[in-house]
Design goal:
This protein is an alpha/beta fold. The protein folds into 2 domains: about 5-425 and about 535-595, TIM Barrel; about 430-495, no CATH class. It is built from 24 helices and 18 strands.
């Protein structure tokens, strides 16, 4: 369905060629991390041949966008947003089926659980691939030589980094010997001579995964499916990028997020912030090269934490870990230059790629960032639980009130799925935040929390308002404060009290409000978001499949990531059915009908 007004607007701005490449039309899509799927031939994790099956499923269900999480090679925590390279791809995703000698080999996980990925598979897979590599004659592989030439900016340095890291038993580069830490040329040349086979193996791995990913992208194009990639705004402190280009990073600082209503102490992510002045002096080549490689595979690219291009929460690196993000400051400090700073970087991004750019603009976003995204034709994110009139109605927006230039969704990889949000978070406030606010005002949290919140319905660090606290006057009475003393408490209350009742009414549901989200309620919710005004609607595979109760038990356990935590359950959630079973599931026809009825096909 064409969008004439927005098409006219987008055809006259800086992103017009990027939009023309994919068309000015409403689309539906699905967010599916590759690690979360598997087929009967997978080696313990989804691979790039499995991506073809995902493309088949998307086509079958009417979804024309597949959004992946970052595919970059990850470190020991397997977090795709803390990658050891902005360029190199994760070799765990290599399909062994391309090598006849490996086709019959299966991976046996160390545990009986099939609900999460056992990442010991990576070393097992790499050992198998190394054995294959030793049989290869690369001396006349012109494609291999061409791959190295085209990616000379990053490829050899990355392979050297990986080999040195193995030499130092996985230690971060800043704990290596000084000669390697500081990249002394003679020492690196000597190491290269002594380890050329291992270095070449790392280059060969990247060549193999490049070819497989490129082939999958061509299959997507053949089936009119767009691939949406993800560009993390930051990179791991222990990464090839930082080791090679220390001048591009502020190593005395760690990036994070300031305290807000969802994280009482803010967040500390740990990655170093950028030295944009140094990057600019190099004519932004580091950024341009990232884009050049990403567009080998993707039609659309998500800019993670786009507000970080305007200003980023910067925490002294030596600040105590338990403080999280509480002691950070914004960089740049001067709010007056945020607008120019962000626009300059966005201009570089848009002008140096054929991909359509979208942006993750969640959280507290300064107006200059919102205005710039609109002017540049860059979609933001509209996550249903946060799409509200926060200041007057304190209620959720109707589908026609969503931003047109947006990607609408029910949940993200960092949130609970929608069923878990409904059951545990709707109508609640964050316990840590409320405790901190009480401490600041010398309010006895233990005493007032019993009066304000229902312990029977408060779980997972969330406090559910009692139904009896049905006015601001009652809130003030229990807090023992005047309106002018607790304005932020009032704001919290107005935007969270009886959220379920408000949404139940908007959805035109009948009967008694249910505590749990059944299939009927979730189906209404997916129809709601598909019918939003947003040009794109991309829902998590978890939310789609939950309509058929494929995920058994407590929905809260089905999370891709819990921000601010380190756990083997982060970045490892698997679907409870194979891709072959997914392709044959009767739910597919229901999803397709919903997409068709919404005009997104």
């Amino acid at each position: 369905m064409p969008l004439d007004p927005i098409a006219e607007s987008l055809s006259n701005n800086i992103s017009k060629e990027n939009w023309s490449a994919i068309g000015f039309k409403k689309r539906a899509g699905v967010l599916i991390p590759l690690f979360t799927v598997y087929s009967k031939d997978s080696f313990g994790i989804g691979d790039l041949r499995d991506l073809r099956l995902l493309i088949d499923w998307a086509k079958l269900t009417g979804n024309s966008i597949i959004q992946l999480l970052p595919m970059n090679e990850v470190g020991p925590l397997y977090c795709p947003y803390d990658a050891i390279s902005s360029f190199a791809l994760e070799p765990a995703y290599i399909c062994l089926g391309d090598f006849p000698v490996l086709r019959e080999i299966k991976f046996e996980p160390k545990t009986d659980s099939n609900s999460h990925v056992d990442y010991s598979l990576k070393n097992a897979k790499l050992q198998l691939l190394f054995d294959v590599y030793l049989t290869q004659d690369l001396s006349e592989e012109l494609d291999f030589e061409e791959f190295q030439r085209k990616n000379s900016y990053w490829l050899f340095d990355f392979a050297l980094f990986k080999t040195l890291k193995e030499h130092y038993q996985g230690k971060p580069w800043y704990e290596w010997e000084e000669k390697f830490r500081n990249r002394e040329p003679f020492a690196l040349e000597e190491f290269q001579r002594d380890n050329i086979e291992k270095i070449t193996f790392q280059i060969w791995l990247q060549w193999i995964i490049f070819k497989q990913f490129k082939s999958a992208a061509e299959y997507a194009a053949k089936n009119n499916i767009l691939l949406k990639g993800d560009l993390p705004v930051l990179v791991s402190r222990d990464s090839a990028d930082v080791w090679v280009h220390t001048e591009f990073f502020k190593l005395d600082f760690a990036a994070g997020a300031p305290p807000d209503m969802y994280a009482a102490l803010g967040q500390r992510w740990g990655m170093p912030t950028y030295n944009w002045e140094a990057i600019a002096r190099d004519n932004y080549r580091y950024i341009k090269e990232k884009l050049k490689y990403a567009q080998e595979f993707y039609n659309i690219l998500r800019i993670d934490h786009v507000v970080g291009l305007f200003r980023i929460w910067s925490i002294p690196y030596n600040d105590a870990e338990q403080n999280q993000g509480a002691n950070g400051v914004f960089d740049p400090l001067d709010e007056q230059i945020w607008n120019e700073h962000g626009r300059k970087i966005l201009s570089v991004l848009v002008k140096n790629t054929k991909m359509l750019l979208c942006a993750e603009d969640l959280g507290v976003i300064p107006k200059c960032c919102i205005d710039a995204l609109l002017e540049f034709g860059i979609c933001g994110n509209d996550v249903q639980r946060w799409v509200k009139d926060w200041n007057r109605r304190h209620d959720f927006l109707a589908p026609q009130e969503y931003r047109t230039l947006a990607v609408a969704m029910l949940s993200t990889h960092d949130t609970t799925n929608w069923k878990a949000w409904w059951q545990y978070e709707a109508g609640t406030v964050d316990q840590g935040l409320f405790m901190r606010k009480c401490k600041e005002r010398k309010i006895d949290f233990a005493k007032v929390s019993l009066k304000l919140f229902d312990p029977r319905l408060s779980f997972h660090g969330r406090l559910r308002w009692r139904d009896e606290i049905n006015s601001i006057d009652k809130l003030l009475w229990e807090l023992g404060k005047r309106t002018d003393e607790v304005g932020d408490f009032i704001e919290l209350y107005e935007n969270t009290f009886r959220e379920k009742e408000k949404l139940w009414k908007i959805l035109d549901c009948c009967g008694t409000i249910t505590e749990e989200a059944n299939a009927e309620l979730l189906t209404k919710m997916i129809k709601f978001i598909l019918n939003s005004q947003a040009i794109f609607c991309i829902n998590s595979i978890r939310d789609y499949l939950s309509m058929a109760d494929i995920f058994k038990g407590d929905p809260y356990q089905y999370r891709v990531n819990v921000p601010g935590t380190i756990s083997p359950k982060n970045w490892s959630l698997r679907l409870p059915l194979s891709l072959e079973e997914l392709l044959a599931h009767p739910l597919n026809q229901q999803i397709r009908k919903m997409v068709v009825d919404s005009g997104r096909i």
